[in-house]
Amino acid sequence: MSYRWQNTLISTNSTIKDALKIIDSEALRVALVVESDNRLVGIITDGDIRRGLLNNVTLDSLVTAVMNPSPTTASASTPRAELEEIMQEKGILSIPLLDSDQQLVELALLNAPQKPIYQNPVFIMAGGFGTRLKPLTDDCPKPMLKVGDKPILETVIRNFTKAGFVNFYISTHYMPERISAHFGDGKWLGVNITYVHEESPLGTGGALGLLPSDLPIGLPLIMINGDVLTNVDFERLLAFHNDNNADATMCVREYEYQIPYGVIEGEHCKVTSMVEKPVQRFFVNAGVYVVAPHVVQSVPKNQHIDMPTLLEQHMEEKNQVFMFPIHEYWLDIGRMDDFNRAQVDIQTIGLD
């Protein structure tokens, strides 16, 4: 992966989608917005983009809609020790360095710390019947269907391990032996795997009540459906949850629906506006959650409950539930056309 800061430069007439390509492809995790004379006008991070999405900014909008126009900068002559101190104090990974004419000349980087290991439990829902994928699931649980050369569930686990997660819990129901026979205790993947079995389907949240009492103390749990393929940054998701002191965080995905007709609004018999085939945008549940320990503990053993219902209950108790927008690749493999699409996508999304 490249560390050339010049690769992060982007112009003010570029789109947020262009900035995302830079942030996702470069190791520096930042896009620097400059004018033609290399004068810095702003910085864009992944967090800036996600906040923009929550405020109904689209990926086709210009970068100026989400950039930070007043980033922390420093003179190119600033001693390295002082730059390190500023970055540590502000919790940032880089500082643009400017010359006397305020032109960008370099990007100072925080010395990369050793990649962390996260003890947070990762709970994967893998008990579904996969009815809509019959006949493929007649003799194979859906999470064990192969996308590329690996089962879906193995791809999900490996994606978490790349981010530093090591403690996995898998909820099973349909053909559980196929799953446990493949993964065992997880040691061959360098992780720990524990299984919980649903004697009868408990919904998307009910299996939380089956988790053992010896989960890592005080750490939020990440929960994901076992048929979801995504390259969302789980480290950023966990940091977002912790930074907001959330009780629960739900990942959401933007969904667009175009009404195929002209929409007319009126007052009594008078037409007040006409919009031809308007596009409506919604956030939909992406099947990935982070929940605090007390939310896990609130689910009784063997109680059927879906995650939206569980989160609504905690919202009624004034708990803080946040949403984290996913702009990365995401696919819920629920139908045959989703499965076929995944076979094509897996070659290009960095999950194979």
TrEMBL record:
Coiled coil: none annotated. The keyword Secreted does not apply. CDD domains: CBS_pair_NTP_transferase_assoc, NTP_transferase_like_2. Pfam families: CBS (PF00571), NTP_transferase (PF00483). SMART domains: CBS. Keywords: CBS domain. Residues 1-61 form the CBS domain. SUPFAM superfamilies: CBS-domain pair (SSF54631), Nucleotide-diphospho-sugar transferases (SSF53448). PANTHER family: SUGAR-1-PHOSPHATE GUANYL TRANSFERASE. This is Alcohol dehydrogenase. It comes from Salinivibrio siamensis.
